[in-house]
Sequence to fold (165 residues):
Amino acid sequence: MATNLDPHTNFSRACRAIVDLNTDILRDELDSHVTPSDIASKANACTKLPSLRPEQWIVINNAATKGSYEDFDSSLLYIMIRNLCSLPPPKLGWNKKPLGTDLSVAADVERIRYYRNEVYGHTTRAEISDSEFRIIWLDLEKISERFDKNRPGKNYKKAKRLKDE
Fold:
């Protein structure tokens, strides 16, 4: 892995992995539980679904027509996975950074949400130090490797290539 990079470059690389790679992982996870053709009816029937914005409902309703989750952002994917899929919650529960020892699918979904929020969702600066970048990147690689094992035919290991671009 390249080291001693500009903090802005580190930020950019982490964001690309989170937006491109991790969103693909979340799309595939949702698709493994609910097909795009069924998402609107399942979302409408779900009593525990949080209040969604009108534009999110448009995206949900369009999924059947498109036959994919391509227009779902990571936040909407997280909401759908958490509320429509039968995943048991991570050991510490939802909306908390998972324990490093919790390697469940739900914990990795929660890690993706955590990094999305920490890296660019709620940050005040577009920079990440080298030491912080190494920690984030290692965790993102591990998430990718676990999903690779759970999703034959998918290749989430492209995170390894992103780090040196």
Notes: The chain has one domain: 7-162. The chain has seven helices and no strands.
